[in-house]
Design brief:
80% of the residues lie in helices and 0% in strands. By secondary structure, the chain is mostly helical.
Length: 421
């Protein structure tokens, strides 16, 4: 009995360890998402509108789920990346993805690098432009010399630290005295003037849909070092996605409980914004926690920057490889990383430290390209490129069509809003 129990316990521990070890691509996806969309968009939504947009954040995550899930599901079923699936659909589909991906890659790299630099200003008295350069150089060093293995390990630790810190801060905020000023009336987000903000918030909620292609390539990279079953791949993705969606609401709660109704609004300046963000935590966790919180927030955004550079570079490199019928090249991947970072730095210099306008521009751009990326993934998941049992069934097809309708409707509404404002 004792030996049987010991054997069962050892087997269970081994399975749990194997499952945790197989996890990685889904956690990396969550790290990419929690950067600007959560720390900035969700927190800002709570600070300006309270709880009013909580259901919108959850709805957006649900409606985008089929398009994000395509990365893990297709690769687990077909044993190849999403980009190879696009090429099977036709060369024009891969060209379309790669062309839009170049634009998104440069803009997103600029956005997260400036946000990281803004957080770093709390510790290093240098200009935000110079810090952005140091952030990009540090990210490239980690990726070129550490590769996927280092990124995988680093992200798990940072994600855990940020999640625990944020949950503690929100729990304390619920018990803190109300900061709402007497006579305060919450502004409604359902006004014509806020269409731009709503679209920006939904653009990177939970992340740009092209992240699904990153997830696909990360899964293939993970399989090089260990065996990952189809069930493990899907579980890893689902875990990362659910954590991402729930944390979006948690960050909204933090903005609502600590800032909404106080009369304070977020500054467009990167330096001042980072100070305000850290203050949200220190107000409820104590001023002595300021530097600890600042360091955790910085590491979170830094890991997002590293993840974004790695993910976009891998997809651009693979797109080039497939379109030119070339061979895998580590050197080409490194060149793509450097060029993308250089272009991102040029955009940062153009915006001159104006963080929120840059992030809003990037998020809106993400929303407008999301329609195309979502359609490509849906088309692939109902195609003959994968076995019948792995294609999307009736429920996922309905959810996908509802999601596409929502994306197209808001894209058209935003274009009309831009033309008439």
């Amino acid at each position: 009995m004792s030996n049987s129990y010991s054997h069962s316990l050892t087997k269970s521990s081994f399975q749990l360890g194997s499952l945790f070890g197989a996890m990685g691509p889904g956690i990396l996806m969550a790290a990419a998402a929690i950067g600007a969309s959560h720390l900035v968009a969700s927190t800002r939504a709570g600070a300006e509108f309270g709880w009013q947009l909580a259901w919108v954040i959850l709805a957006v995550n649900i409606l985008k789920y089929p398009f994000f899930a395509a990365g893990a599901r297709y690769t687990a079923a077909a044993g190849e990346s999403l980009l190879e699936g696009y090429l099977k659909q036709g060369r024009k589909y891969l060209l379309l993805f790669t062309g839009l991906n170049v634009i998104a890659a440069i803009a997103s790299t600029a956005g997260v690098a400036m946000l990281t630099a803004a957080m770093l200003t709390q510790f290093v008295p240098l200009s935000i432009d110079l810090l952005a350069l140091l952030v990009l150089l540090s990210s490239l060093t980690i990726l070129i010399f550490g590769h996927y293995a280092l990124l995988d390990k680093m992200t798990k630790v940072i994600m855990l630290a940020l999640t625990l810190t944020t949950l503690i801060a929100v729990a304390l905020a619920f018990n803190a005295p109300s900061i709402v000023q007497p006579g305060f009336v919450s502004t409604s987000p359902w006004q014509w003037a806020y269409i731009g903000f709503l679209v920006a918030m939904m653009g990177w909620m939970p992340a740009p849909i092209e992240v699904s292609a990153w997830n696909s390539l990360w899964l293939l990279e993970k399989k090089k070092s260990q065996q990952v079953s189809k069930q493990q791949a899907i579980l890893d993705f689902n875990f990362g996605y659910v954590v991402t969606a729930l944390l979006a609401v948690v960050f909204l709660a933090l903005g609502t409980l600590v800032m909404h109704g106080s009369g304070e609004t977020f500054s467009a300046s990167g330096v001042q914004f980072s100070q305000q963000l850290i203050s949200l935590y220190s107000k409820v966790m104590g001023s002595e926690s300021r530097y600890l919180i600042g360091m955790v927030a910085f590491l979170c955004i830094f890991s997002t920057t590293v993840t974004v550079i790695d993910g976009y570079s891998r997809t651009l490199n693979m797109g080039w490889q497939l379109l030119k019928a070339g061979r895998p090249s580590e050197k080409r991947l490194n060149v793509v990383m450097c060029l993308m970072s250089l272009c991102g730095l040029a955009i940062i210099l153009f915006f001159k430290g104006a963080l929120l306008p840059l992030l809003e521009f990037v998020m809106i751009l993400a929303f407008m390209t999301t329609v195309v990326f979502a359609w490509l993934n849906y088309k692939l998941m109902i195609s003959t490129a994968i076995p019948v049992e792995d294609r999307y069934g009736a429920k996922m097809r309905v959810l996908s069509l509802v999601g596409l309708t929502y994306l197209v409707s808001f894209a058209v509404l935003f274009i009309y809003w831009m033309l008439t404002k």
